[in-house]
Write a structure and sequence with these properties.
The chain has 239 residues and is an alpha/beta fold. The chain is built from eight helices and eleven strands. It is elongated.
Length: 239
């Protein structure tokens, strides 16, 4: 039996993949065991995670890299979390910041919020709570509260890692999903190739010089040629 060319495609030529990191998060935490466990949970949930083990390095990384969100412990060596946060805010850095505090230290929470934090979680905490709060902060910072992002005929559910085109499921590879996620979260804005590379790869991942062009070409085949626009010399844009 032949295939009706008018039928909507579900694009199953490549195997389905578990969603991998698309949104880049900085974790500033000096407790090695806690940092390793939280990093593993965040990556499993679909975040690219960089880690700093002290306040000096955390401040520098937050000043020089565009993170989608930060998880910041307040009790840090070299430079306190409060000082790190104040430095970021006074320098114009506006990424959402989730602070980690001792459960009973309400004064820390107040000081952190006054310094410019967006939310807090008390220790000990469940990783799922941190993940949920980060997703809410990122949605809020991108101008929306709906967990499903929609641009034209494309709908993307960050929590479930699912994509539909005019209501029909589209199966993407892990890397394609990473690229689409960054573009959807920044809909209407130009995202450079270097920015996309920073957001879809952690610092220790190997990066190819032409990978972004390949992934964008594949996404256009699956979502339509006009779904992603090229802004010559600057990058890519959805919406």
């Amino acid at each position: 039996m032949g295939v009706d060319p008018r039928a909507p495609a579900t694009y199953v030529s490549e195997p389905a993949a578990t969603p991998e990191p698309a949104i880049r998060v900085l974790l500033v935490e000096d407790d090695t065991d806690l940092a390793q466990r939280l990093t593993a949970s965040l990556r499993e949930a679909g975040f690219a995670v960089d880690r700093a083990a002290d306040g000096d390095l955390g401040a520098y990384m937050g000043e020089t890299t565009d993170y989608d969100a930060v998880v910041l412990d307040l009790g840090l060596p070299k430079l306190s979390g409060i000082e790190v946060l104040r430095r970021w805010r006074s320098g114009g850095r506006r990424m959402p910041v989730l602070i980690l505090t001792a459960r009973s230290a309400w004064t820390e929470r107040v000081e952190g919020l006054n310094a410019g934090a967006d939310d807090y979680v008390g220790k000990p905490f469940q990783a799922l709570e941190v993940i949920a709060r980060l997703r809410a902060l990122i949605r809020r910072s991108s101008g929306g509260s709906n967990p499903v992002l929609v641009q034209g005929d494309i709908a993307f559910d960050p929590a479930g890692g699912s994509v539909t085109l005019r209501g029909v499921p589209v199966i993407l590879t892990a890397q394609e999903l990473r690229v689409l996620s960054v573009l959807m979260h920044r809909a209407g804005r130009i995202v450079s190739q270097s920015d996309l590379l920073d957001h879809i790869y952690a610092d220790d991942d190997v990066r190819g010089s032409n990978t972004i062009e390949v992934f964008v070409a594949r996404l256009r085949k699956k979502l339509g040629h006009d779904a992603i626009r090229t802004v010559r010399g600057l990058g890519y844009r959805i919406g």
